[in-house]
């Protein structure tokens, strides 16, 4: 074997070296095997062919499955196919895995890639990949590619999910699979041992797990305030004045519930950070874990904030269509008519103009910052930000947004806080209730940035001898 | 050769091993060669130097092109330069490729990377890379990097397009080029043999190929409805009442065309999925390809939906500025004045209030979901969604959006459907015309989710023995 | 050593081969060493373990730091730990680097990865990595991973920044570090020699460096126009008519400043491209560098444009809430009342309706294009565009946006340009001032696309013999 030959051979086999002992390599390309000729198997085979691999399909009836098989590949029986490659993709359903048992000898030492998925969580007692490993103990099972659809396998990863997760016991087997993934244009991430397989198999079945809690909170708050305001506004008017103003449910009531829920959720988004800071101050150290509930709360802050933005967006739309409403136009005409008929003079009130305009202006600025926060939480935008930039926007601008929106709500109340007619049936209006939480958050935050606590905080930082910049960043994240 | 020496050597030569036979390697870095000292060549050379390669430029006049050449590189004549590296980037225009013919001997076995582009499609009978290969048959031509600008080559891939496409006959040559691309920070994707080169060369010249059909549809629909409404609203008023209300073209007419086109395009976006489901039910199998027109239609659904969102956005803006318009303010004053002068009393109509407010509320909710659909179709957002999440949003929420927008339009018509005065010149108003298609889509979808068809669909799934989760995903994509 | 053994060994050692001579490798995984058991060190160790590495922590007190150390790793004294791996991550603060000096012998030939960051820029005379290299001259120092937080190290790169920058003197050492980064799921980019370390260390400390100049410009323009309009509108009214209309600051004034600043910044975004084109025409060549100020200006065009979009967004919101304002509703009532009381007849003016509606319509179309430009400048969207598509949108649609917005402003002025009452205290209104710059830009652009200049431009292109498509793209970028 000359040096020239050896080096050619080496560059050609991408960390799949053990294969060379098993099969004489074709002159140009490395061969991989795909068991199963369904949509998934065929799509995968096509993609492998395009990436320069030789593809051998393993099929129960190798002679009858010809028409749809990608051109350039070979179809053999399972046993024959198993011999032709070191790497075997198992693109059949878990229910049919038993056909592999009699092949145990041929599969010995091979890398089996389990691509299967289930139709629902906990369908089987153990993960498909672990089941496969138990059937063929001599092979090295790697779980992977299952998060991709046949579609994205066929079309390549250009606009679908690039990220592929794999797991398995053998480091070498995983490296072989990762090399193939890289050549197919995916970026593979090793998630650990085969025990992680269940998690990977559950991944395609998950439906917004991180959004669930925030969505429950949003739904609960909306329902609670909807009924509270329904009673206070519409049923109260019906009982005391006998007027049917139920049409107000559609716009007026919705436009009260939305800003209330938005403001509460925005403060729920910043409350855990403040709580964490105080906990650290109280404990005198930042190196103890937070309680679990606080941890979980902090992990769904992004979702809380985005839902709050959604409600704020609805509030803006509901507010902007006010002058188009029939009721509003009717009232305006009625007011003008009454001014004329009663021959009143109208007086312009500068204070009302000031407070009204300030209220609107604060709302506009608050909403603009809100949108800015939303844009920077888009994955592609937050990825180009340095950590300091991200925390500047999410912490400084976030608290500023909360401040502006709270001030906007206070100005809405304006001089109604002290008037007793505001408190129908002795209940405060919705916007007063929703001011409690943001006021508390802002007060606590104010306490944290006063000189005394600030010094304490700094002392804390200096005290901890190991605190590097990274740990500050970590802390920063925690107390965002 | 000691083990230490061998391992150093190995880690240094990244799958470019054949080079070692040709040239005594420099102690620290591998050398690559760049032919051409224009903007592109220099940018590429600079980037290669930064990535730790040794760079040798090949130039016609090696001694006169000194000042702009990146510091640290070498400039030689073509023949001498060709000898110094295994990999040669051809950064000259196709018109000057003939200078390579006399170098055939020096180029034998070398990897030539063709980076060229053309000024327009079909400028030459064959692809530049294929032409290059025909000129230097002894070399291994790889097409690649041509989708990058000199700018992004120089600045690195941090905020430009990371993806680089390559193609070529030799797997080893492609691997060598991919290794370089990876070290420069790009992620290279092997697209196949040299016959793909024309496609890669056409890529930088393409101008929204997937948007073309949806844009034609949008333009056609807009023009058709514009003229239809122009005749019905403005020309009709001129003929029958002699009034010139042409100023309404700018806002009123635009605000009728936009929502009509938006709603039709949204239903065009969901129609193919429904058709595909019925086709599968009719055929009794999901393993036959759809007809070509249906395939093409399904592939431009995203673009149809985004254009529909654009028109909906315009509709929202046009609606929100209504109360600012001179005409509207004039009418409001006139109405109030006539109430006073004719001493009429105004009566508040709760039904009108209910229908008007519901109409507005449905519009707001529909538009919010519309925006949500738009956000989730941003590449960075759809990438972090699991397939189930993506299909939940695009299918469930998508049909809900269509339902809300259709209901919004029906409520707009409200009690005008049966009034004969609505049908000027015996033509229905635009919003009635545009209701046909979404109503059909929603009815068909309703049929699909009724128990009987649902069972049929399920039977279909169970019947097909090979149906894995992936194939369901595939199906799911098809019938989104 | 049989072939089987050799190949196994090879696939297992990822370009870290020199390690094999130093330590007998564990049967399954490669060992790396982490000095420091703080948050950062522990997070990194955990991630390394998950990726299949063996991890040995080096600690001052190996026996007392047990509880928080990730399960599966080993804790040794520094000297012992240094012997167990070829790659050593230094996860301690720069202040404690001196403990490495006595270990010089054990660290000889090892790769030391400096992960440290500083609390502020220029905290120390030299970069931390250079300081480390001077302390341990026998080791090969590589700077890297410092842009990551402990958080994203622990959680993996799925939704944080994937990109990792490294630099160092030795190519082999950098390759070893890059291999680890790749296995951890990051994508590493080699930025050059150790002299770049300071730049990398400053990166996490930077706060929107590219946004600074555009933000200064926006703040300056806003302040200037605010005071100009304050004097012209509010103080003028107070002096000449004694009226206090200061409440107009909150909405009316803000709604004048926003569109003015937006339009000026949009034209500032397109001015440098036009200037560059004229400079190239004047020079007769496109191969000379632009002056520095023009270069810097061109590099912040994206930021200028996005800030302009922000101001336009505020302008839209401020405009849409106009009919809700107390002042506006008061005025409307007053107008109607005066019509009645003075028994005037109102006459509908078609010209006013035309100009008003056109003004609004142009504004809406301009803003929609503005938003489209904003969306396409999102990193994830611009990444999927080909260069021609990106330049089509940013150049063609960009200039169209500028044209629409300028026409919108001209129509706002309409017939007031020639009325002397517009010029209070002999000063022109703000919107006239802000029309100067966009008019100039549009005129210059018009000149550039007239046949004569166009031919000149083309001649320029043909003259330059080396101009490839890439260079045209480069030029295209410059003169966008």
From TrEMBL, chains A, B, C:
Its localization reads: Endosome membrane
Domain annotation Ferric oxidoreductase: ranges: 260-404
Q: What is its main location?
A: membrane
Cellular component terms, GO, for this chain's entry?
endosome membrane; plasma membrane
List the InterPro entries. Fe3_Rdtase_TM_dom (IPR013130), NAD(P)-bd_dom_sf (IPR036291), P5C_Rdtase_cat_N (IPR028939), STEAP_metalloreductase (IPR051267)
Name the keywords, alphabetized. Copper, Endosome, FAD, Flavoprotein, Ion transport, Iron, Iron transport, Membrane, Metal-binding, Oxidoreductase, Transmembrane, Transmembrane helix, Transport
Q: Which domain of life is it from?
A: Eukaryota
Which residue ranges traverse the bilayer?
A: 215-239, 259-282, 303-328, 359-385, 397-415, 430-448
- Signal sequence region: none
What Gene Ontology terms describe what this protein does at the molecular function level? cupric reductase (NADH) activity; ferric-chelate reductase (NADPH) activity; metal ion binding
Q: What is this protein called?
A: STEAP family member 4
> What does it catalyze?
2 Cu(+) + NADP(+) + H(+) = 2 Cu(2+) + NADPH; 2 Fe(2+) + NADP(+) + H(+) = 2 Fe(3+) + NADPH
Instruction: Enumerate the spans annotated as Pyrroline-5-carboxylate reductase catalytic N-terminal domain.
Output: 31-117
Q: Which SUPFAM superfamilies match?
A: NAD(P)-binding Rossmann-fold domains
Q: Which family does this protein fall into?
A: Belongs to the STEAP family.
Q: Membrane topology for this entry?
A: Multi-pass membrane protein
What cofactor is this protein dependent on? heme b; FAD
Record GO biological process: copper ion import; iron ion transport
């Amino acid at each position: 074997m000359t040096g020239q030959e050896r080096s050619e051979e080496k560059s050609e086999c991408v960390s799949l070296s053990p294969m060379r002992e098993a099969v004489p390599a074709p002159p140009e390309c490395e061969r991989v095997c795909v068991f199963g000729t369904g949509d998934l198997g065929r799509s995968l085979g096509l993609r492998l062919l395009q990436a320069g691999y030789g593809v051998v399909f393993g099929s129960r009836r190798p002679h009858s499955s010809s028409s749809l098989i990608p051109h350039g590949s070979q179809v053999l029986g399972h046993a024959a196919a198993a011999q032709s490659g070191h790497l075997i993709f198992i693109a059949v359903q878990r229910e049919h895995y038993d056909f592999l048992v009699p092949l145990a000898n041929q599969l010995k030492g091979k890398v089996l890639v389990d691509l299967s998925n289930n139709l629902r969580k906990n369908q089987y007692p153990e993960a498909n990949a672990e089941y496969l490993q138990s059937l063929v103990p001599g092979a090295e099972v790697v779980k992977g590619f299952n998060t991709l659809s046949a579609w994205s396998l066929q079309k390549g990863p250009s606009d679908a999910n690039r990220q592929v997760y794999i797991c398995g016991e053998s480091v070498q087997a995983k490296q072989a699979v990762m090399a193939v993934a890289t050549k197919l244009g995916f970026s593979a991430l090793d998630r650990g041992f085969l025990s992680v397989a269940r998690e990977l198999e559950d991944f395609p079945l998950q439906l917004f797990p991180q959004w669930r809690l925030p969505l429950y909170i949003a739904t609960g708050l909306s329902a609670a305030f909807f009924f509270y305001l329904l009673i206070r506004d519409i049923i109260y008017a019906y009982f005391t004045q006998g007027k049917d103003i139920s049409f107000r449910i559609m716009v007026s009531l919705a436009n009260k519930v939305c800003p209330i829920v938005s403001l509460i959720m925005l403060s729920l988004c910043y409350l855990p950070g403040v709580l964490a800071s105080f906990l650290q101050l109280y404990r005198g150290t930042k190196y103890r874990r937070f309680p679990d509930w606080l941890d979980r709360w902090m992990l769904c802050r992004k979702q809380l904030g985005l839902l709050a933005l959604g409600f704020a967006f609805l509030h803006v739309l509901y507010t902007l269509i006010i002058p188009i409403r029939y009721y509003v136009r009717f009232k305006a005409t009625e007011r003008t008519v009454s001014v004329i008929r009663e021959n009143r003079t109208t007086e312009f009130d500068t204070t009302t103009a000031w407070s009204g305009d300030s209220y609107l202006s604060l709302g506009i600025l608050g909403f603009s910052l809100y949108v800015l926060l939303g844009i920077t939480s888009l994955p592609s935008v937050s990825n180009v930000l340095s950590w300091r930039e991200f925390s500047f926007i999410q912490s400084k601008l976030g608290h500023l947004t909360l401040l502006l929106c709270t001030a906007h709500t206070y100005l809405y109340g304006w001089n109604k806080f002290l008037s007793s007619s505001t408190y129908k049936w002795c209940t405060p209006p919705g916007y007063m209730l929703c001011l409690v939480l943001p006021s508390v958050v802002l007060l606590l935050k104010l306490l944290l940035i006063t000189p005394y606590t600030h010094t304490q905080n700094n002392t804390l930082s200096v005290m901890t001898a190991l605190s590097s910049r990274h740990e500050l960043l970590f802390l920063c994240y925690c107390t965002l």
